Amino acid sequence: MTLQATVSISWVNTVLAAAEQQGVAREVLLAQAGIAAQELDAERWPIDHITRLWCAAARCTKDAGFGLKVGAGVGPASFNVVSFLLQSAPTLREAFALVQQCQSLISDGGRFQTIAGADSCWVVYHPSQGELAFSPHQIEAVLAAVVVFTRWVTGTSLRPLAVQFSQARLGPLTGYREVFRCPVTFEQAFSGVLVTNALLDTPLPQADAQLAQVLHEHARERLAALATRTELGPALRAWIAGQLHAHLPTRAQAARVLGLTERTLARRLQAQGLSFSGLLDEARREAALQALAHSQRSLAEIGQALGYAEPSVFNRAVRRWTGSTPRAWRLAQQMTNDEVDSPAVQSGLSVR
């Protein structure tokens, strides 16, 4: 069992808000992604959740520039405490160094690297996807966010020297030029933003050493808490989901895989506000709703594949999750698919 990358709900909300601005309600987008609305109550999502959200947003908005719009629309709320920590840094160079230290507070889905030259410096983004391949919109959003956020903390209308992507262009060049205001190239060796060293070393207008110290300490505490908190929940969720296709996993099996006793596992989960039965229910819910919305499997087949002994037990579970019967919920999702003109995905039961 390996640790699973996660992303802050603040970044999730940024994506949802951008889709809403284009007329796609968050309920519709979540349904298209196969993600239960209750997941919005979580502080962090598994990285594959937000990848599904990005793919659904691309389908629903039909906008080749969706990722650019998400990045261009970022604000302080998009990056939680990291936003204000960067704003209070003495220079942009030190702000980028803080991003490298605190990146996990926003997302585990990538890391930043700075490559310094004589007169300029590349800020390079290295994506780190989960089991699902990232949407190219995710990468475009990150680089757009870097530029827009740099303008915010410097109080300038920054024009980078250049921006490049390792992937192909998604839409017209005009969309990229509007956001970046500089030459943009594609299918390069890496994705990054090139800025001058002079800009990196210019004092930031809202630099505050005392505030920076307080915020940095808070960020360190959050990172420490995150390291403890994410070791079990996401990893267990991923393991449970991976076992569902073969058999119904048990707490004893999970404890054995983790090298723990059942009591220790239960105690550690309880300390994090979790339980094995709750995580199992979440995994079954996600797999069931995905299968109902995006496959032609019969209700009996789906229920049996997820370990429900009787159709009536599966029926009650779906009612508890959605307030509807499996048949009614599936019909509602099909109607939603028709409304957004998204082709149904004819696939087998997904348990990931």
From TrEMBL:
One of its GO terms (molecular function) is transcription cis-regulatory region binding. Keywords: DNA-binding, Transcription, Transcription regulation. This is AraC-like DNA-binding protein. SUPFAM superfamilies: Homeodomain-like. Gene3D superfamilies: Homeodomain-like. GO terms for cellular component: cytosol. It comes from the Bacteria. The keyword Zinc does not apply. Residues 234-332 form the HTH araC/xylS-type domain. The keyword Calcium does not apply. Coiled coil: none annotated.
